[in-house]
Amino acid sequence: MRIKIIALILLIISPYASYARRGKNSTLTLRDSIITEATRHIGKRYQYAGKGPNRFDCSGFTGYVFRQFGYELYASSASQYLQGEKVKLENAQKGDLIFFKGSNSKSKGVGHVGIIYDVNPDGKNTTLQFIHASVNKGITIDNYPESDYYRIRFIGIRRIIGEDERKEQYPSDTDETSEEETQEITPPNQEEEKKQEPVEEKEEKKKQEPQEEPSEPQKEEPAAPTEPLCHIVKKKETLFKIARKYDCTVEDLMEWNHLKNTYLKIGQSLYVTRPTAQDQEKNRREEPTPPKEEKKEPTPVVTDTITHTVQPKETLYKLSRQYGCSVEDIQRWNHLKGNALKIGQTLIILKPIEQ
User: Fold this and answer.
1) Reduced to 3 DSSP states, what percent helix, strand and coil does the chain have, rounded to the nearest 5?
2) Nearest to 88, CA basis, from 80, 77, 98, 79
3) For the residues of 46-78, what is the DSSP string, one character each?
4) What is the pLDDT of residues 57-105, one digit of tens each?
5) For residue range 19-43, what is the model confidence (pLDDT) as tens digits?
6) Is the sign of the CA dihedral 132, 135, 137, 142 positive or negative?
7) Are residues 89 and 158 in contact, defined by beta-carbon separation less than 8 angstroms?
8) Burial 16-51 (b: 16+ CB within 10 A, else e)
9) Cβ atoms of residues 297 and 310 within 8 Å
10) Rounded to an integer, what distance in angstroms lies between the CA atom of residue 159 and that of residue 165?
11) 354 closest CA partner among 303, 307, 306, 295
12) What's the confidence (pLDDT) of residue 73?
């Protein structure tokens, strides 16, 4: 009789226990959510330069998956290898990016990328699975280092997800982004932006303000000839930094070089128009000496501090475009060690103001 009562109690409790287990696992970590999103596309075909959501190449697939969680990856596998933090094989986690050489195993450059799907940790003998866009099989899962093809082509692992975001909880189901939404987000150097940077209001007001007429008629002197300088863009340089270096505005640089947007490439030549030394000396000799009170020292560049609160799906790349600065600037101003941002996080932005 006692055994029957115990069996009856177990039959009543077991459905509730099963339901409780399902409820406990109904949310996923950020890494789990990325893997869940990636596996939704298994079986979709490979297409060169495909960015999804129906066909992908390798970097288009990783970029699409991470974009669903507010991360902007660069357009190619080689450029994605420059993002995030380098990680050793024994420290790899699911959701990290894994990089390989291309079809030529003797090359030294990155040619392929995937997302780590699962890890079996065992020190230097760690094995893992990764999901990627294969030329022959489309979106599929492969093993490393069991596959000889990928073992001899392995380059390294990069971590895009910051440590502070690893434990955040995300819903297990994510909405798939439409084709139109994916086309709105354009990686650097892939398409020219249609929007021009707005001209500073203070500069416009200066142009519109009427100038005071001199007490005595003066002859208008022709503008001094200019001597173009050629500046070669270096790593981490932006139009804003170059404009400060040559004491001009971002709009001047864009006009002199016929630029339609603020993107720069390393090694790109920029022309800076400045008066020649001979012309400046000649003008100083011909112009009458102005009164002492009218002499003005060059106005130092003053910055205005702006605070920005991080919104959902905002990344450092998006904020750098919004405020006309570089990702490295925002990291330096806020002492950030990586690209990870939290919703509601307060960032400091320094903007130049004219006196």
Assistant:
1) 30, 20, 45
2) 98
3) B-TT-BSSS-B-HHHHHHHHHHTTT----SSHH
4) 999 999 999 999 999 999 999 999 999 999 999 999 999 999 999 988 8
5) 344 444 445 689 999 999 999 999 9
6) negative
7) no
8) eeeeeeeeeeeebbbbbbbbbbbebbeebebbeebb
9) no
10) 12
11) 303
12) 95
Q: What is the DSSP letter of 163?
A: G
**Residue at 48: amino acid letter:** Y
Report the C-alpha gap between 56 and 201 in whole angstroms: 44
CB 22 within 8 A of CB 14: no
Query: What is the rounded CA–CA span in Å between residue 125 and residue 142?
Result: 17
Kindly give the parts of the chain with pLDDT less than 70: 1-28, 163-228, 274-304, 352-355
> Closest by alpha carbon to 227, among 278, 281, 283?
278
Q: 3-state class of 101 per DSSP?
A: coil
| Amino acid 98: pLDDT | 97
Residue type, 6: I
Q: Which domains, and CATH codes, for the chain? A: 27-173 (3.90.1720.10), 225-281 (3.10.350.10), 302-353 (3.10.350.10)
Nearest alpha carbon to residue 234 among 222, 224, 248, 245: 245
Encoding tokens for residue 128?
Answer: 């893992």
